[in-house]
Amino acid sequence: MAMAVPIAPFELSFDGRDADGHTADALYIGQSLQGIARLYNSVIGWHLHGRILAPAFQDVRVHVGPPKDGSLLYIIYMMMVHGKMAVYPEIFFELAQFLIPAAVKALIARRSGQMKIVEKQADAMLEMYRRYDEFARQVHSDHVREKGQLLDVLKTLADANRKPLADMTAPVGRTVKQIEHFKNLPEPVVVDEPIAEALRTQDGAVVGELEKYFGKLVAVDTVTGACKLLLDDSAKPIKGKITDPALAMPENPYTHALDTQTHVTVTAKPVSKNGKISTLYVSDAKPDEAV
Questions:
Q1: Is the pLDDT of residue 287 over 90?
Q2: In contact, 74 and 168? CB cutoff 8 Å
Q3: Which of 33, 96, 187, 287 is 20 to 30 A from 42 via CA?
Q4: Contact 37, 181 (CB under 8 A)
């Protein structure tokens, strides 16, 4: 069936780990692409109709193009089913170039507890809707006029896409290091290991900002990066994951700190569940800053 391509394609990149050799585990990549297709289809359906549609919505189909060298890079096409394009004014597709990335970023942030990002994307979307008031009134009624209402819609849309968002993360931390949505745009949307953990969690996971933590390393796996840290203000070790490439070096601060049991300062991004740190994703360690 012939299909039109009214929205400029987006780039999707799988980076790191196996992808550095231009391969990746097919099962994880397949699961991820299915999740991404359902997520994008849900967002474009909401954009075109102003409501959250059933998964069977078929006016738009998400296609994927061939990989390119450099990582696993795909081109994401949103294809209009034959005969459907005439139903929508051109302005729908022009706005989609901005609103699809903004909405996807907001949904990922909403499910990973990054509310500052959600607020920022909602503000940007509201500004665009105000510029195109006729479109907003025709398609989205009142729920894109007030920030609180738009935030409610984004929460509902994020909850509706819980499984696609989780499926999308399947390769991260297993066969690739991260997924980069909209790689061809000025502000790509990166899904790294902390965000992937939060998206896989049923509810309540929050990805925090990078912070410094002080303590001792009590376990380090140099192959997987898994570790345990006993922080100075904690009675029990906390699970960690070292994402720093320096771990692969023969002389590195992680194994040194483990062997000598010296204090270290680690820079890490926390993932919290029910208000408690679940995992620290460590990107740097400096024994010379010991306390």
A1: no
A2: no
A3: 187
A4: no
